């Protein structure tokens, strides 16, 4: 908080004296001459961001090139620079590749599904009467508002063998429809990566589609109705109108939604930690694996740092796309 | 129903399958098909709303169910003998693994979130004023940095954050969480506030300055009242971010049970007593309802706020 106080004397001293004193005049003249005001206003926020994001990012890079584990924490050995050894070890680690695969596959499945469900709901909200769309959007808002941990516990329970509605429902359906699995005792979270991530995907879609729907709706409202009207008079089918008129006009919005969804779905931690936990290493994703490397005994910060850096690099590629498309839409003006 | 022109969600088969050109129809036929369309669209909407609400409904109704109803072989939508016993159990702390009453964690969560909001709003308002009111050399750099920082996930930084806050002796305390949360909330709150500051007419400030008002006075008397609605929206956003945050709290709080925030408490409770579904759902309900209320308050601003930086709000 020291930063805030620093910039106040210039203003405060004048106020205390009731009339601009010589010091105040000098400081304000100095600030004016060097155009310092905006920098002083930015400073507190910048210090906060630097301390909590930028400096830790630098530290992560440093850790990933060091041996930093139990001996270094206890002080038995000093940290040592080891070059790319942590990365080489990571690339020879089968759990890393498994985690990467799980993260990528999850995003590849969950992102298009969230976008599709969100689009359908957005189009519906645009077409339905006021009361009906208010009802749907309120329902969606509540799903969106549910904190991730609550959602994860809730979905875990709904898909669990003890009293979960999904297993109960599946066990009541005929075998030709749902296969001969013993659904009444099926544990989605621990049986394997596929059922666990299916469960998490449903949860993530449930929480993500409302945001996509309202954003799509906001985009639809900007499309002049004459365009749809004209296409319809020309005999275009609704589906064709969507693909040929609506979608091209909404391309920038979809690009942003796509990139944001990729970033969000690629780094799900809360849901996967709550539902999967750290016990089954064959169900890890990158976030879980970083956490496991660093915070289970014995801690290996160097290896965890290397995986975190690879993880951050993948996200950076997507983020650059996001920043570019935002800038192109004039977000900086 | 004026917007019947775009049945994008309906399969084209119903409209064009049997007759390639459905347009030359009798007026009565057109009316019927329009009604069928309206009914099926409303039906689809209703179905989506119900499926969406079902998990929330089950959470709340289970919180009020006595345990023999929760474990009955056929699940029921509503409790047939509603009870407050689950809430009583989490209130007294007897089922929560002995780490305390749920209200302790409610207080922790609200405390952390409120202090986060105060710090983040103040810093963000200053920064937003700089960005909206001044053209300076590093302005674009700063804005782009915000966009990137907003996207850096906590997982990528958590090891360094943990070690830094360990050095600062701020692990296991709510103060450490507040510092991280305030900084994390800044990028989005600055993006949101900057648009609100930009809408305040500059003439007002200039007029006040000519009348001899000091910078601070202009800020308090003119800028602040006019950006207040924006400040409410960003505050709620920052509040929700802090209220939902998981990985930093999980890592920082460790075994300091009395400092747990609600998500960490719920996760711990769930991990320790995975089968006590009644009390778990009661705790989950207590945690979820405030978040829902906040979302309902800011619902009209949600789109602009959360795509802040993506689509200019």
Structure description:
The complex is a heterodimer of chains A (333) and B (313). Chain A has 2 domains: 1-35, no CATH class; 94-328, MetI-like (MetI-like fold, Orthogonal Bundle), CATH 1.10.3720. Chain A has helices at residues 2-7, 9-17, 22-33, 37-64, 70-74, 85-91, 94-127, 130-145, 148-158, 165-172, 175-178, 193-221, 225-233, 238-249, 251-266, 270-275, 286-295, 301-328, and strands at 66-67, 80-81. In chain A, 44% of the residues are buried. Chain A is built from 18 helices and 2 strands. Chain A is flat. With 333 residues, chain A is mainly α. Chain A has a two-stranded antiparallel sheet with strand order 1-2. Chain B is an all-alpha fold and 313 residues long. Chain B has 2 domains: 12-63, no CATH class; 92-306, Orthogonal Bundle (MetI-like fold), CATH 1.10.3720. Chain B has helices spanning 12-16, 27-63, 67-70, 85-92, 102-133, 139-151, 154-167, 174-199, 202-210, 215-244, 247-253, 262-272, 277-297, 302-306. In chain B, α6 (139-151) packs across α8 and α8 (174-199) runs antiparallel to α11. The relative contact order of chain B is 0.12. Mean pLDDT of chain B is 83; it is low at 1-21 and 304-313. At the A-B interface, α2, α4, α7, α8 and α9 of A face α1, α2, α5, α6 and α7 of B.
């Amino acid at each position: 908080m020291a930063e805030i106080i620093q910039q106040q004397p210039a203003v405060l001293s004048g106020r205390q004296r009731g009339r601009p004193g010589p010091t105040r005049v000098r400081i304000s003249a100095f600030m004016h001459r060097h155009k310092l005001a905006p920098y002083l206003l930015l400073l507190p926020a910048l210090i906060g961001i630097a301390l909590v994001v930028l400096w830790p990012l630098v530290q992560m890079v440093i850790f990933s090139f060091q041996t930093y584990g139990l001996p270094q924490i206890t002080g038995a050995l000093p940290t040592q620079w080891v070059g790319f050894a942590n990365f080489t070890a990571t690339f020879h680690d089968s759990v890393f590749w498994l985690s990467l695969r799980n993260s990528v596959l999850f995003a590849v499945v969950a992102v298009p599904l969230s976008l599709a469900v969100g689009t359908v709901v957005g189009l519906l909200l645009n077409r339905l009467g006021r009361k009906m769309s208010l009802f749907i959007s309120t329902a969606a808002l509540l799903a969106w508002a549910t904190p991730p941990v609550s959602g994860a516990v809730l979905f875990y329970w709904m898909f669990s063998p003890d009293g979960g509605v999904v297993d109960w429902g599946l066990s009541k359906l005929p075998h030709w429809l749902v296969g001969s699995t013993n659904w009444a005792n099926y544990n989605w979270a621990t049986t394997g990566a596929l059922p666990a991530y299916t469960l998490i995907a449903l949860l993530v879609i449930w929480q993500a589609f409302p945001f996509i729907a309202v954003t799509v709706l906001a985009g639809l409202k900007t499309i002049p109705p004459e365009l749809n009207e004209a296409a319809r008079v020309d005999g275009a089918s609704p589906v064709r109108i969507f693909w040929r008129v609506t979608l091209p006009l909404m391309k920038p919005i979809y690009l942003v939604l796509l990139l944001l969804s990729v970033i969000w779905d690629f780094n799900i931690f809360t849901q996967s930690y709550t539902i999967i936990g750290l016990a089954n290493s064959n169900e890890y994703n990158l976030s879980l694996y970083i956490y496991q490397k660093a915070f289970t005994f014995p801690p290996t910060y160097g290896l965890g740092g290397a995986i975190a850096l690879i993880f951050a690099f993948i996200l950076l590629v997507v983020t650059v796309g996001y920043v570019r498309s935002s800038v192109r839409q004039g977000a900086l003006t | 129903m004026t917007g019947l022109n775009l049945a994008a969600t309906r399969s084209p088969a119903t409209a064009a399958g049997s007759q390639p050109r459905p347009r030359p129809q009798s007026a009565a036929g057109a009316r019927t098909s329009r009604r069928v369309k309206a009914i099926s669209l409303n039906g689809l909407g209703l179905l989506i709303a119900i499926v969406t609400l079902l998990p929330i409904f089950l959470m709340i109704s289970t919180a009020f169910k006595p345990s023999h109803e929760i474990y009955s072989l056929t699940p029921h939508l509503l409790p047939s003998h509603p009870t407050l016993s689950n809430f009583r159990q989490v209130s007294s702390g007897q089922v929560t693994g002995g780490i305390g009453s749920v209200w302790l964690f409610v207080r922790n969560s609200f405390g952390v979130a409120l202090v986060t909001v105060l710090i983040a709003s103040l810093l963000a308002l200053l920064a937003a004023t700089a960005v909206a009111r001044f053209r300076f050399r590093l302005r674009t750099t700063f804005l782009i940095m915000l966009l990137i920082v907003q996207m850096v996930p906590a997982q990528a930084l958590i090891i360094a954050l943990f070690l830094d806050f360990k050095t600062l002796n701020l692990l296991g305390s709510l103060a450490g969480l507040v510092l991280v949360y305030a900084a994390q909330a800044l990028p989005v709150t600055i993006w949101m506030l900057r648009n609100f500051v930009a809408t305040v007419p500059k003439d007002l400030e200039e007029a006040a300055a000519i009348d001899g008002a000091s910078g601070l006075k202009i800020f308090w008397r003119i800028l602040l009242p006019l950006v207040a609605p924006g400040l409410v929206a960003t505050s709620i956003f920052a509040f929700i971010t802090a209220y939902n945050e998981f990985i930093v709290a999980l890592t920082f709080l460790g075994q300091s049970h009395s400092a747990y925030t609600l998500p960490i408490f719920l996760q711990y409770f769930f991990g320790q007593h995975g089968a006590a579904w009644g009390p778990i759902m009661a705790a989950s309900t207590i945690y979820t309802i405030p978040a829902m209320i906040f979302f309902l308050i800011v619902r009209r601003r949600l789109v602009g706020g959360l795509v802040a930086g993506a689509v200019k709000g």
